Amino acid sequence: MNPNSPGQVNEQGIPALPARISGLDALSRNLWWAWQPEARALFRRLGLTLWVRSRKNPVAMLRGLSQERLEALAADPLFLREYDAVMAEFEDVMAARRSWFLDTYGDVGNGGIAYFCAEFGVHTSIPIYSGGLGILAGDHFKEGSDLGVPLKGVGLLYQKGYFRQRLGEHGEQFAIDEPFHPESMPLERIWGNGDDGTHAIVTLAGREVHLGVWRLAIGRTSIYLVDTDIERNHPDDRALSHQLYRGDLEMRLRQEIVLGIGGVRVLRSLGLEPGVWHANEGHAAFMVLERLKERVEAGDSLDDALRHVSASTVFTTHTPVPAGHDYFPREMMEKYFTEYVAGMGMDEQTFFDLGRHPEDDGRFHMSALALRTSDHRNGVSRLHGEVARLMWKGIWPNGGDGSGTAKPKNPPVTAAQAAVEIPGAPTEAQVPIGHITNGVHLPTWMSPSFRRLFDRYLGPDWLLIQDDAALWERALDLPDDLLWRAHLECKHRLFSVMRGRARRRWQDEESKPSQAIAAGTLLDPEVLTIGFARRFATYKRASLIFSDLDRLEEILTHTWRPVQLVFAGKAHPADEPGQALLADVYQKAMETRFGGRIAFIEDYEMNVARDLYSGVDVWLNNPRPPLEACGTGGQKAAINGVPQLSTLDGWWAEGWTRLNGWAINERQPIELGGDPSARDEADALSLYDTIESEIAPLYYRRDVDGVPRGWIRVMKHAIRTGGMGFSSRRMLKDYVERYYAPAAGSSTGGEEG
Question: Which pLDDT tens digit goes with each residue over 131-149?
Answer without folding.
Answer: 899 999 999 999 999 999 9
